[in-house]
């Protein structure tokens, strides 16, 4: 798929008018065309490498807490808590299982982190990291690898994604919904859900895979809307699911309104041949970030189509990008070879400050 890159459309030809002719006759200087000042950089400081887990295991899952603290899950079943902006030694380490941590998610109020392992989900208190309630997967469920988690604002509902989505009531551990969407737009097949978020009012659960986004009404759990896009990474949601961002195989970044299913922005990261967009992240205020296939992280403000800064982080694809709920920190990850026997990607991480 080929289209004119946005930077070409941003510079129309300017015709010669009376003002230019008068300037030439009088010997004056040609008036310069108005040029917008470059947007202030959202990112720009060198990325800081996040220290590997204390036991030198592989990083298999990443999430941010409400206060910007970084939570890392490992291939050895550990969860490490780091303070906001700290890439070095963790403040606390919990052994939640003896199998890999497959996915992590934080509640909207930032008080709880969910960590998925082979047998279920362990809920952790972020203020004083300690093991909390355990939600066990039903025996009839299919849980090879949990690819996504979501908690609502106060950790009352828990969504677990594999090739379907199970929704649990946390207080009782009861599964209240089993969701799957073999949409005709997706070839009539079920696909692995790899991103999820509850809306701020708790009225919808948004679930994403590499073919787009499905929105489900909480309560009756009926499908509300579907957005479709062929992309290498699923849609990512702002903390309250006000916006969704997704990168495409032809190096574009789309911003969508999950409530309406409409695309509100179409940006490009590159014009180089064979470039594509890696993972993306977006804030509730519309600050947008995207990784590239050549190891860069780019940033946009909600009112400008030109990037507000970019940082070369590594070589290879930025396959993981997470933004803290307060939009002050960004973590970027490059995937390595799959952890044997798990199907999980191990990540090397870098931390970048955001300057809104």
TrEMBL record:
Q: Which SUPFAM superfamilies match?
A: Quinoprotein alcohol dehydrogenase-like
Indicate what this protein is called per its UniProt record.
WD40 repeat domain-containing protein
This chain's source organism reads Sphaerisporangium melleum
User: In the record, what lineage is assigned to the organism producing the protein?
Assistant: Bacteria, Bacillati, Actinomycetota, Actinomycetes, Streptosporangiales
